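Annex B. Sample input.
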Amino acid sequence: MRLKFMSRGFRMLPRHFVARMSSFTESPAKASLCCENNTEEGAPPSYAMYEALKDSCQNNATYFQPDDSENGQRLYQGFMTLMDHIDTVWPLVDHVRKVAPLYDFDSHSPGNGYRSFVSVVDSCVLHGLKISRQVVTSRDALLFRKGYFVKEVESCGQLLASLGTCLHHLHTLLSWAQPGDLFPTEPHSPEELFAQADTINQYCFYGRCLGFQFLPSMRGILKGISICMAGFSEAYYSHGNLISSVWTGGQYLIDPEMRARRIVNISQSASVEFCKAFWFLAESEIMKRVPSLMSSTVAVNKIITLPPEPITVQMSDGKETTVLPPTVHIGLQGLNLRLISVNKRAGMAGEGSSSLPPSEGIVFHCHGGGFVAQSSKSHETYLREWAAKLNVPILSVDYSLAPQAPFPRALEEVFYAYCWMISNFKEIGTTGKRIVFAGDSAGANLIAGCTLKILSTGLRVPEGLFMAYAPLLVSFIPSPARLLCLMDPLLPFGFMMRCLKAYASSNARPKSGEQKMSSKDKEIAMGPKEIMMASNPTTPPESNGFLKVSTSQEGISEGPSSFEEVSPSDLAELQAHKSGSERRQSSDTTISAASLQSEHNASGITPQDDKSQQFVSDFLERYVLDSDTDSEGRRIPVIKPNVIMAVANNAQNESNSHKEASEGSCTCTLVGEPPLVVDDDDCKEKKKIKTRLSEAATGIMGAMSSRFAYITGSNSIRPTQEELAVRTNLDALIARSPSDEFIFSVPRDPFLSPYWADETLLSKFPPVRILTVHLDPCLDDCVMFAKKLKKLGNIVGIDVLEGLPHGFLNFSLMAKEANEGSKLCVERIKQLLDLENTPPNDNMEL
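Annex B, continued. Sample output.
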């Protein structure tokens, strides 16, 4: 009977149905082709996918309808629900598909947020068709896994439903903007947008369907990063408890729903400090060795530290001017530059003699990292390749990071580094005949802002700009591409908003160790003799941010002025808030410009401050603070008994404190090992031995956890009560509306958002090449900025790549398509380095 039933099941599939199902590939839909019309049928060819999915779902629903088992009925309901969602989404995506080409940069470079969403919906349909096809071909098998496919079908239905909600938002955006404009013409808040439709279910984007919209070569990488993010959060929010984090991290590998829940809660609830800690894993010792092992070999790879001294530079009219070092927010600091060159060239400082003449070109680079993380070292994987293929030196700036150094600190440092470069070409092995700016993500924003500053001050303008997936409008102005961050594994919505807030909103920066700035806005004083870079050009207006800034974001408030004001709890908390990076930072921050050091120094503390901090630290450890272990075996600072005695307020406490001090002075106790107490009772002796073994094991685990926390540098020893409550309840938070994250003010400053720059300055921009990807939340920034430059008559070109994520350059050694994208970057930079031989406006197919 079973064999007959199986044959009946196969006979239900018509040949044309099987042929139509097998004609579709499993790769994601291409955004550049998803809106092309089929002249024979008068409809996009992708509609055949929708018909095929409906037919396949109907076939599977008919098959499982008579199945009385729980999973059988769930499969039936899942396929019927999927059909309903197709009917709902179809007309919505149809309208967007028709109007999307109106928003492209040009016909040779199709790409905008509307196209991207059409391709995402098409990719979801392809994903559903793949699952339905697997059910059709294996449902009669003896080992058919009903439970597995139930979850796959239901998750696909939830995914399509969420995309339907996104399409409703896209229709609202279309009504807000003029044809061809990706940004609303009138001010509209994100709250208005999300009030137009149901709340988007983000869980479905990070569970079983994670990465469905990306190329197959990227899906495994993105899944691995998501698992690492969820597992890392366990270590971060359990204060470095290694065993529990590894155990729970393994669960994220086998439980996609648990992983999705964790990632969404992290995205919506984690602080910017968590983002920094996670992204700084790329700076770990293991990751630092990857470029030297897998990337191209370079002859020069060193750090040049610029002391904070005035620089005399020559302006474009031949006059000289003086540029002062940046002082805003964190005071005078040394600035690190990384020089990478495939060859040693004549004149390079510290490289000896060389017969190779200086290069005629130089690439001035700024790394990405959301303004809050990473450095030139973490971007070395592709910088080495670029240096080898371009055969010119690359000078990359390690600018200060937010929230400790918000806008405009990083921009001022990049401008300062550029001024030093044009005055010291010989030391970096170039004649400086041709200068090309290059940057990705946040770095692209900084080089665009630096170009505006160069134009406004009359310095030499670079010969070209290359920008990769650039955020050129630092504000959450609603646009179709910005909604892509709701499903982005590398740049989740909450991460993006917190990074923008940390950089653009000055009241979100830490207070500890910073100079007090005037509340009144200061302008950059620019004259023929001197450019004042020490001022604060634009102070954002006071923000009423919805997110309450936690202690980890604000830092520690200024300490009391005298020792008499310090209570034991104050002293313990003061020591507890010292992060791992603060305990490890070097005392040397500025050396001569010609001297070199092997490793990046980002301490952010002047030598005088560092010595004073070291003195205070030594004083606390020697006379005030002792160490103990908590219930989990971690070392925690406690007040020494004699200090408690000194601050006692009554005689009884004083006598008790004397007793504790006398006992403590005669005993030296190791962590995890209590003082030995002699007890004749066998029961107590066994209990004592058991306690010692238990605490010894706890001490070992505490040491391992402390080492793990030291490596990650993720959190302090003892968080505040508020921070502890947030951490311990993070996984229990309910997903809330994304609009809650938007309520903070951002100034309309062209140096912060180059898209707002005056057309007079933009018209003077050098040739620009922009490279981005269809699935980038910053895609609309790039397209609209390129349109603006084109309208002004500038030389500009844009390339939009398929199926790659924001930040794909960091995966150029791991994915073939990412490596090809990096090669295209090299070609575009070559065009900018030699415009006479290769016109920069020619589009090159990847």
